[in-house]
Amino acid sequence: MATISLGVGANMIDFLLYALLAGIGVAAVAGPLGCFVVWRRMAYFGDTLAHSALLGVAMGVLLNIDLGIAVTLICLLMALGLVALEQQEVLALDTLLGILSHSSLAAGLVVISLLSDVRVDLMSLLFGDLLSVTKADLMVIYLGAGVAILLLATLWKSLINITVEPELAAVEGVNVARVRTALMVITALVIAIAMKIVGVLLITALLIIPAATARRISATPESMAVIASLVAMLSVVSGLATSWYVDTPAGPSIVISATLLFCLSLNYKQKG
Amino acid sequence: MNNYLIQLKSVSKSFTDKTILQNISMTVNRGEITTLIGPNGAGKSSLARLILGLISPDSGKISRAEDLIIGYMPQKIHIDPTLPISTCRFLQLANASLEDCNKALEQVGIPDVKHTPLHKLSGGEMQRALLARAILRQPNLLILDEPVQGVDFNGQNELYELIGELRSSLNCGIVMVSHDLHLVMSATDHVICLNHHICCQGKPEQVTQDPAYLDIFGETALYNHQHNHQHNIQGKVLDADGNHQPGGGCQHD
Fold first, then answer.
1. Which of B54, B82, B83 is opposite residue A167, by nearest beta carbon?
2. Judging by DSSP bridges, how do beta strands B173-178 and B141-145 pair with one another?
3. CB B52 to CB A167 under 8 A?
4. In terms of C-beta distances under 8 Å and separation of at least 24 residues, what long-range contacts does A237-241 make, across chains too?
């Protein structure tokens, strides 16, 4: 009896540890990327990419390819499509994003429902399934987050420059189109890895809320990015703890933690 | 070395079948201040953006001097308050050292705001901060799009004076966009009156020394000229009777 319970205990600790590490990895990159989402008012953009991830899952199942790869590909395609569509003048961008966002979500749901021979856990796709993270998932998450952080760090100055005033940056020699496309690609990558943690419906929350919290106590773009990362990590840890002790779903618990931290931050007078 | 900084030959530009600029030929010489005036929607900013290389012409040719370095002051800049960035840091985005940034802020007369968040600058301070960033790269051509926008009247005069001083201290050419005929600074060497095409161009003329006029307008010059044609609301050329002249020439008395 004792050995069995010991075995279960070790397993429990393993999967809790994986969940924790996965959440912290995603939180690390969600901080700086979330800052750009807030500064550049890309929240709706993020939502659209996140919702299209569900379509990616459907396509992956349909074509029998790895879901992570399918999601990343669909998000990338969507991101590049959105960069191109930004130039059009037929519809206001938020209207267009609304159309794309919800139609891709709907299309994903419909295609998944048609795949009768495959059991897809819709709830875990929509709201995340942090507690089912495997060692392989963990490696993918750290690889993706690592690449995204490296790209953000390399392009940091140009990204800030085009965020402040793109035409000024262009005159000073920044290739605005390339940097903007890179940011879209990074966003797509992060959404693909964050899906496992909080699900397609809550990804933008993990990007925006820690950044908004960090804004209250930051005086430079860099400190805001770092603080946002720390806030996101704290949200992951406390959300996961809540989920463990109160038996609530992990993804939504993380978002609630982030929201509580944001409410606390309102007590501080905004810096800068 | 060419004598000109930038030369446009018969340049035209349309946006979605609306002709914004038609057959523009102009030269910006070293050390000269050129002012583009014209009503709203006349294509002044588009012309500035063509000169900057931000957009390409549909036809015509733009030649730039090989040693051309442009400093640009955009028309307006929106800083989202969610982005915490100090004025000093904003200037450093132009790949400049801290020392150069402090010097530039001193040159434009706002050394005290270097730690002030950008979104908290007043209208006048913001224009000066933009001017400081424009001069950071040691340009030989400054392009200023409505440089006194959002600045009160006394501030406008001070800003124009500052621009005149910068021209001599940097020894650079300046292209300035303005929609206000009365405020074209007296230091302007060359005025181009634009309404989709160049209506006329020439030297500004000191109109009056009348104390009453100076009271109202300060040390400003009026570019005194008359057109032999009018424009309708779309900027189409009308003859003296107000009829549209298809493809009509645009001449001046």
1. B54
2. parallel
3. yes
4. A237/A20, A237/A23, A237/A24, A239/A23, A240/A16, A240/A19, A240/A20, A240/A23, A240/A130
Q: DSSP H helical segments within B21-77, as ranges?
A: 44-52
Q: Tokens for A265?
A: 């931050």
| Torsions phi, psi for A223 (to 5 deg) | -65, -35
CA A194, CA A186: separation in Å to the nearest integer?
A: 12
CA distance A199 to A252: 9
Q: Using the beta-carbon criterion (under 8 Å), do A157 and B93 form an inter-chain contact? A: yes
Any alpha helices (H) in B43-175, and if so which ranges? Answer: 44-52, 87-92, 98-107, 123-135, 153-170
Q: What is the pTM of this model?
A: 0.84
Walk me through the domains of chain A, giving residue ranges and CATH numbers: 16-201 (1.10.3470.10)
The torsion angles phi and psi of B82, rounded to 5 degrees, stand at -75, -15
Q: Of B75, B55, B42, which is closest to residue B8 (Cα–Cα)?
A: B55
Contact check, Cβ <8 Å, A89/B16: yes
- Local confidence pLDDT in tens for the 253 residues of chain B: 567 899 999 999 988 778 889 899 999 998 888 888 877 888 888 999 999 999 999 999 999 998 999 999 998 888 889 999 999 999 999 988 999 999 999 999 999 998 999 999 988 899 999 999 999 988 999 999 988 887 888 888 888 888 888 888 888 999 998 866 555 556 677 888 888 888 777 776 533 343 433 433 344 444 445 566 666 655 566 655 555 544 444 444 4
Spatial distance between the Cα atoms of B235 and B253, rounded to a whole number of angstroms: 19
Q: Report the residue of A38, A156, A158, A165 to disrupt the B interface, i.e. the one with the largest count of B CBs within 10 Å.
A: A165
- The rounded distance, in Å, linking the Cα atoms of B177 and B185 is 11
Query: ipTM for the complex?
Result: 0.83
DSSP secondary structure letter of residue B27: E
Distance CA B47, CA B111 (A): 33
CATH of domain B4-69+139-238: 3.40.50.300
A168 vs B82: CB contact, 8 Å cut-off? Answer: no
Backbone angles phi, psi at A14, to 5 degrees: -55, -55
Chain B, nearest residue to A217 by Cα = B84
Burial class (CB in 10 A: 0-12, 13-18, 19+), B164: middle
CA–CA gap between residue A254 and residue A240 (Å, rounded): 7
Q: What whole-number distance in Å separates Cα of residue B8 and Cα of residue B26?
A: 5
Phi, psi of A92 (to 5 degrees): -60, 145
* B18-29 and B4-15 beta bridge pairing: antiparallel
